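Format notes (please read before filing issues)

Several people have asked whether sequences and structure tokens are stored in separate files. They are not. Every record keeps both together, in the order shown below: the sequence lines, then the token lines. Line labels are part of the format and must not be stripped during preprocessing.
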Amino acid sequence: MKHFGTASTGEDVHAITLSDGALRVTLLTWGAIVQDVRLAGVDRSLTLGSDNIADYEGEMRHHGSLIGPIANRISTARVKIDGMMHELERNQDGRIHLHSGARATHRRLWQVAAHSASHAVLTCDLLDGETGLPGNRTIMATFRVAGDRLSLDITGTTDAKTLMNFANHSYWNFDGTADWSGHRLWVNAPRCLPTDADYCATGEILDVAGTDLDFRTPRAIAPKSPWLDNNFCLSDTPAPLRDVLTLTGASGVGMTVATDQTGIQVYDGRDAIRPGHANFEGLAIEAQGWPDAPTHRAFPSIEVTPDQPYTQSTTFRFFAPRP
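Then the structure lines:
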């Protein structure tokens, strides 16, 4: 563990590098960020990162971070829990709640509970009322590297009924190119959630057959063809860990994601611009529950209670062509 930088809050941010076999991953204690991913035989990082903590407090605040307690959007910026309405921060266009607002988990320092050469446990506490939600909450994220795999296990406990829907928000480009043109995408999802002009789920659950969002057979994608900022519906309830998505660069370098979550968001990075780079540089792949679930009764619930805590298990397996 080494010093990475000092946040604007005056807090020291540290970098933790995990390695085992072919894979080396660097995490930051700010936002539980996946800052760098290196695979043996590949001469570049597979994720889009920065060496400057100020970037992660600014325009790159979603790059690599663990977003919660509610990732994605709440279209009404309000949620009802046990009959009580809770008003949330309206941080998108003054109307919509996006990625849990200014006090979200990706905008604060996490504590290191344990770490070794190949794993790290980071924790974050949210007080009752923070981010607009009830409950004193403790979030624990365990990262582990083994061979060619990075696993992420998340638990969230609370002392009152509340809402949780976490997502790692790393951006991926496996070719080291200016944008992700030429990548191929496979998503094992028969349905997806269409969005409105504000990128919020409309409430419709769309059969992907015959649409440009059908990725059940791997195919090449390009910026704007199609536009991507959609949740793909993997199941109606959490399921055992299973492969749900593969993204492969033109170079043959790629990643397969397995998760137990009900959904996975694919975002094309149209507005995610690193300093000195352009849009569409990387694709965000976010295992999560279905977004805006409190607004749409047909969506799987994201409620958690003291007796039924939040859990997520997601694994990223990386591969490259043999020399």
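For reference, the curators noted about this record: The chain has one helix and 27 strands. Helices lie at 53-57.
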